Amino acid sequence: MPIETIKLPTLYGDHHVLEIRRLLFDLPGVEDVYASSCFHLVEVQYDDAALTPDQIRTVLDEAGYMGELPVPAETGRAATENGGQTWFRHTAAFEQTGQVVNFGQTVPHDGRPLWPCPGMGVISVQ
Fold it and tell me: How many distinct structural domains can be found in the chain?
């Protein structure tokens, strides 16, 4: 039985692995499925008398796994030099900083972490 290997850019989590296995095992002729969210690929062993590689790819494409993962890209320009558009890149470089890069974040301190976090002790209510 042939094995079809397909790269799936949007396969990035184990919950996708479960869904891909479900989709492919619903097809007649699929014997085995190996899906890897780490390598973004799936290997399908199938009966070529009952199924074609194009049918496998069509099912994966209709489910949205064949396309590229849409992520915002950095513009490469600082927000102050981007014509007023502040999407995604919010840093600015200044000559006087030399080789120093610094990032700051303001976090309100009126809550608690959702999970144990190093550096954050138990918040006590007084």
Answer: 1
Taking only the tens place, the pLDDT of each residue in 99-114 is: 666 666 666 655 655 5
78, 93 Cβ separation under 8 angstroms: yes
Range of 40's domain?
3-62
CA distances from residue 98 to 24, 77, 79 in whole angstroms, order as listed: 55, 18, 19
The Cα–Cα gap between 76 and 35 comes to 35
User: Can you give the pTM of this predicted structure?
Assistant: 0.56
The amino acid sitting at 38 is: C
Question: Quick check: is 10 in a domain?
Answer: yes
Helix or strand run (H / E) with residue 36: strand 30-36
C-alpha 30/C-alpha 26 separation (Å) is 8
